[in-house]
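Data deposition worksheet. Section B asks for the primary sequence of the deposited chain exactly as it was used as input, without tags or linkers unless they were present during the calculation. Section C holds the resulting structure in token form. Section D is free text for depositor observations; keep each observation to a single sentence. Incomplete worksheets are returned to the depositor.
Section A, Depositor: J.P.
Section B:
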Amino acid sequence: MLIYLKVRALECYCWRCVCAPLSPVEVIQIDFQREANSIAHHTDEYECPDGVARRGQAFDLQLLLNRPFRKDKDSLSLRLTVGEKPQMNKGTEIHLRVSSSLSSRKWRASVKNVNACYLTLSVTSPPDCVVGLYTLDWVKSYLAEGETPSVKTQFYILFNPWCIDDTVYMEGEDEKKEYILNETGKLYIGSSNDISSRSWNFGQFEEGVLQICFELLDNSEMPVTARGNPVDLCRVLTAIINSQDDEGVLEGNWSGEYKGGTEPTHWLGSVEILKEYHEKQKPVRYGQCWVFSAVLTTVMRSLGIPCRSVTNFDSAHDSDKSITIDVIFDEDGKEVEKMESDSIWNFHVWNDCWMKRPDLIDGFDGWQAIDATPQETSSGVYQCGPSSLKAIKNGMVYLNYDTPFLFAEVNSDRIFWRLNKKGRLKPFWRNKNAVGHFISTQAVGGKGRADVTNLYKYLEGSEEERIAVDLACKHGALAQELSLEDLNDVTVTVKSKEEVFIGSKVPIFVTLKNSAHQTRQLIMVVRVNVIYYTGVKKGMCKEETFNLTLEANAEHKVELSLESSNYMDLYEEHCALQCVVTGRVLETREPIIDQHTFHLKEFSLPMLLEGRAKQQKESKIKLSFKNPLDKPLKDVMLKTEGVGLKTGKVINLG
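Section C:
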């Protein structure tokens, strides 16, 4: 009898007595271990009701069971699902058996600790799994019949730049702090001769933002199964951020009229835009390039993909894939705008994102250019990128995606054409240094502006740079050799005084040089236009004609003054002044031309914090501003926004 009881005791799994029947393991509660997991996964800043983990890295789940778990006797299996219609063969439904040690499966779960009725599991997702909101909806005991009732829990799995096996892996802690964790930053604007910046609240960890990011992917109808591939995902996001063809987040507006919406210059952060889109389920009015870029930075960082906003000064818009920017003049030196479709923007803001490119040949991992501003269609949709910066730099425009357009933005030549009376075009001047200057982003650590031009192009005029341009042009839509006869012995350059503030007189200097051994007669016309930052002319503010005689081998200078009354009625935020000098040498009938675009400096708004700012306490900030203009300012508005502020403020000052 004693022997019988001993055998039964060995066979019995009951913890109360040796002869009680075994009860199935049941889960009473699931704890995501949010504090420990979020610190380990660098997700502790997310203001999100659900847990947040990163793929390819273990996270803990603590289960409260109806009885103690016996590692050597009990066996459990978990089911994880993501998306509305999960399927095992699609990788969106995962059945995961818990083992006492790590298994070789891509998804794996192991017992980390047993403490009475508390069971701690360590769960690891593959480094290439789908990102999204996962549901753990049952735990099954193999000693019970059927499924064991379980409490459901949900948690997000994001991309992981800290995981070496993830395609978005990035070395350097400072770099990850900047391109993933930094919630604020600078967007660079202005012009190549006067670079300024706007502060921006990206707010990628703010309440509701992560949920909205996945809502965008749902609205884009991107298959859940494709959401583990950052190349495909960022391409989709460039389309859904604009509303051009899919009712996306932002409606672009460059008209200067913003009734029924918010002026693009009034936005200070992405959170307000994303929340308005979520609440109204229709595009938010209005955005321009820096707004599209900043919102995309927010979404990418929130999902776990390293991203930064990048500004290209003197940015080309090549509309016909010729990889040249074409400007046409008639025989009188007047620009024939109706025949032009290309333009040069004073600045354009897009994004770089960091990832491997397994879809390309080796050597093109790292920074990839993407652009959410709707400019040209790609595969029938207003989307752009990703394009490897290494491909752009080397003129390899045949590599995906949209590399010809992005190459042209930073390194196309500007070709000036003359239209004769018979309607024939002849190129007469090539400017090889017209575009792609001071390509800028916020430096790592927020320490000012970082110039990343060398990542996009070789040194202007170098042999490597010309080889890249030639290669790109050979694969362009026209792929033609241009023959430019350099017969002109008279050259012209135009400049303006640096650092001229809005409302001031603007000096303009024109220098003509005659390299011939004979006197030259010429007619010269100087036109000054106010242009939008996209290069589109808003209006002409001055025109003056000169009849000049240039002595042999001599230089002649002309100085003009532009009064504030000439331009103030046309000038507005992000506009610029463009001075175009055209003319003709009477003896040779050869044209002369030069063009200079410059941005007037804006006055700063000094801020002074009174005392020390304390959490959950009101703080006072002192602002001072003096009107520098000779007329009163109307409809003055002050807007505030910042990380951690419950709501921004709008103050109307009259």
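Section D:
The longest strand covers residues 537-550.
The chain has three domains: 25-158, 173-474, 490-598.
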